[in-house]
Every structure is written in C-alpha cells, then in structure tokens.
Amino acid sequence: MQQITNQSLLSFMVLNQDQGIAVSNPATGEILGYAPVSPEHDILDGIERASFAQKEWALLPAKTRSGLLQKWYQLLLDNKEDLGRLMTLEQGKPWAEAQGEVLYGASFIEWFAEEAKRTYGETIPAPSSDKRLVTMKQPIGVACAITPWNFPIAMITRKAGPALAAGCSFIVKPSESTPLSAFAVAELAYQAGIPRDVLQVVLGANSRQVGGIFTSHPLIRKLSFTGSTQVGRVLMQQSANDIKRTSMELGGNAPFIVFDDADIDAAVLGAMASKFRNAGQTCVCANRFYVHNKVYDEFVEKFDAAVQQLKVGNGLEEGVNVGPVISESAKQGIQSLIDGAIEQGAKPVTEPKTLDGLFMQPVVLKNVTHDMDIISQEIFGPVAPVIKFDDDQQLIEMANDTIYGLASYFYSQNIHRVWKIAEALEYGMVGINEGMISTEVAPFGGVKQSGIGREGAKQGIDEYMSIKYLCFGGN
After folding, report:
1. What is the mean pLDDT of the chain?
2. Which of 9, 70, 354, 397 has the most CB atoms around it within 10 Å of its CB?
3. What is the pLDDT of residue 136?
4. What is the 3 state secondary structure string of the chain?
5. How far from the centroid of its chain's Cα atoms is residue 271's Cα?
C-alpha cells in the first residue's frame, strides 16, 4: 500500500484472497490488498453483539456520545491525507477531491456530535386539566446500512453519525469495490473510543447475502441504503416483512437548466462542478442539460472549451481532474449511451479521444433531443448531453419527465422565474445559480423513485429515533 503513514488504518487487511476480497486500483489494475470477509455466522453474531451493546450505548449521556464523536471527527481530520490517498487508490478520484470527501464526510460526524445533545421532546397542551402530555425521542435500536463505491467515506459517515448520536448501534456493509476506506474510518472510530460492537463493518460472500440478513433479522430495526432504485425496491420489499424503518437514497436524473437571462460564465462553472466531479459518478451529477435557444450556442462553446481543459489520469498524479470510472462494465455502459445518442443524431462538440484502461475522455454532446435514450437514463459518467428549449412551460415538462426526483439545477437572474421554477421542479433538492449543493447542514434526499427520508441537517437524526408519547393522568 502506497505511502500510508498511519499503518493502523490498514490493520484489518488479510493476507490473501482465500481470506478476503481482492481490492484493485481502477487506474492501474494493481491489487492493493484483501479486505476481510465475514462468514454468515459471524455477521449474525455481530448483530447479537450490536443489540446488546446498543442498550449500553443508549444509556450514555448524550454529552458523552457527543464527545466520542468529536474525537472521531478530529482523527478523520488528522488523517485526511492518508484517507484521501487510500480512497484514490481504491476508487480512482483525484487525491485533492478525495481529501475533500474526507472533510465532507467528517463534517457529518461533527454535525451529529452536536445534534446528539439536541434530540428534544416537547410538552403538549392537554385537553383537560387533569392530564399532562409529553413526548420524548428514543433511539430506534440496531441500525444497518448498505453504502456505494462512489463516496466510500461520506456515504458511511452521513449514516453512522446520526445513528451513533441518536444512541443506536450501527452495522455497515460497504461496496466490495471500495471496502478499505470503510474499515479505515471505522479503525479511527475505535481509536476515538467508540466500542467495536457499537460500530461494525462487514463484508459477506456477496451483497445479496448481507442484504438478506439485514432485511430479515428481527434485531435490526432500521435499514439505510444508498444505491440504485432497482436494488432499493428489493430491499424495501424485503424489509416490509418486519415493517423495518427504511431510508433510501436512490437513482437520479438531474436536469441542469440555463435560461436566457442566466449569467453564462457562472452557469459554465456550475456545470463543470456538478457534472465532472468524481468523473460524473455521483447521484446528484447534472445528467441532462437544458439550455434556452437564445444562449445555446454560447453556452455549448464555453462549456466545451472548459471541458477540454480537464486532465484525465491517475488520481495521484499532479493536475489530474478526472480519474477512471469504476469498472470495465461501467465504461462499456457509458460508451453504449454515447454511441446510441450519436446514432440518434447527437454530435460531440469535440471528438473525444479513445483512452486505455478505465479512463474516459469527458465529452459534451450537442444536437440532443429530449426523446433520446441517453436522456432517460442515469449516465454515471463524464458525458454531458445538451438540449435546446424555447419556453418555460416546455422546460418544466421536460425536466419533470422522469421517474427520478433527487437533485436539479437552474441558472436565472429573474427573481419571479426563480420562484416559479423552484416550486415547479419535482425534486428533493434544487440548486439555484449553484452547482454544488451538498452540505451537512441541509437535508439531502429525493422524491418520486429517488428515495425516501433525509440525511444531514436536523432531520437526519430523526431517521434513527422513535417518538414516544407520555400521557400523565390524575394531576
């Protein structure tokens, strides 16, 4: 493993493939090491231990849990460079971007360390003078999560932070593609004093096995999932047998809209930030661009010029903006969407180069129409299809014409239009003259088939708590 100064971050690794899952660098194909796989009986035993430990964890004063989370937060900051390097090695994103994710992920631990002390109940005016009505919030119990490969640290801390702050124990199954970051951040949590039974990382023989255990085990009261809508549907169906609490952050098909009164230069900067972060492999990436006919040519020219300045390569190399995509199947899927769009009449503004390995040259497609296949699917890659529109109502209908409703973006300087469009867009999050909207202090989540529940903000901790109503009589 390259240049990891805190070797305790790698203490979990096993010696060979017989004992674990091989993890490789998508930029080079090099095997980085082997992450431990838990047999089913170990996972079941871990759930039992988590249930027992949760009761003791919940009895700790909120201030004590808060203090332990604060220590974890500080250790994440102290190890930012090592964690970022590890993430780049196993996931591919540029090192600077990976370090940014570490800070972003750590921000949820800090935020929920503070929110641990603010899980307030309330008193309710009673309907008669002999009663007193009170509510209190209590941890839901053992919580579990299944997290994706594209944000291998932030997608864990965004769930673990509120769970631990609320008094839950927490078990996470990271992606088999990027498990090293998950085990590393858990090791720092243990160094901070969080008990090992309270926070667990598990890998099974396959994802379906662990998902089946999580959704069927009676001691697990809550499941949080970030991933595809298809898998989310299955997990919700499986969780229905026990009526488990679920929160789902699923697929997206984010529109990025540029009106004729927009600041075009600002819109281009926002488009670059939204579209090409993590090589376009984020659930809130701009997926389809709608640009008013009056400014279409100007936007496309400036946007493509900015795209041509991006440097593709190994994320550990200086100056690289775009790393590899995660797998060969991902690359083939993205290329298939590009080829299909070109067959249907789209045209690359600048012909992209064919790159070896898992690298892809970012491309802007013009002459795209709303009925092309690429518009209805989540691209999850460095491809930006740009569509013309003429009027606001036409735009709203096209932007909302999807089963998804996670993130959306638009640029306009007309305050009346801003309110109208913001209210009309059927999305859980709207970026207005802004391409980067994710933050720990605001609720993250979608509508329609992009999921249920919210992460971050004050709403995030409520996902891991139950409200109990107390009625005092005879007063």
Report:
1. 96
2. 9
3. 98
4. CCCCCCHHHHCCCECCCCCEEEEECCCCCCEEEEEECCCHHHHHHHHHHHHHHHHHHHHCCHHHHHHHHHHHHHHHHHCHHHHHHHHHHHHCCCHHHHHHHHHHHHHHHHHHHHHHHHCCCEEECCCCCCCEEEEEEEECCEEEEECCCCCCCHHHHHHHHHHHHHCCEEEEECCCCCHHHHHHHHHHHHHHCCCCCCEEECCCCCHHHHHHHHHHCCCEEEEEEECCHHHHHHHHHHHHHHCCEEEEECCCCEEEEECCCCCHHHHHHHHHHHHHHHHHCCCCCEEEEEEECCCHHHHHHHHHHHHCCCCECCCCCCCCCECCCCCHHHHHHHHHHHHHHHHCCCEECCCCCCCCCCCCCCEEEEEECCCCHHHHCCCCCCEEEEEEECCHHHHHHHHCCCCCCCEEEEECCCHHHHHHHHHHCCCCEEEECCCCCCCCCCCECCCHHHEECCECHHHHHHCCEEEEEEEECCC
5. 19
Rounded CA-CA distance 430/428 in Å is 7
Q: What percent of the chain has pLDDT over 90?
A: 95
Higher-scoring residue by pLDDT: 207, 42: 42
**Backbone torsions φ then ψ of 310, nearest 5 degrees:** -70, 140
> What CA–CA distance (Å, rounded) separates 138 from 401?
40
The CA angle 193-197-198, to the nearest 5 degrees, is 65
Which residues form the catalytic set?
249
What is each CA distance from 465 to 9, 116, 220, 226, 239, in whole angstroms?
Answer: 31, 11, 13, 19, 18
pLDDT tens-digit map of 105-152: 999 999 999 999 999 999 999 999 999 999 999 999 999 999 999 999
Give 437-462 pLDDT, tens digit per residue: 999 999 999 999 999 999 999 999 99
For the entire predicted model, the pTM comes to 0.96
Residue type, 287: N
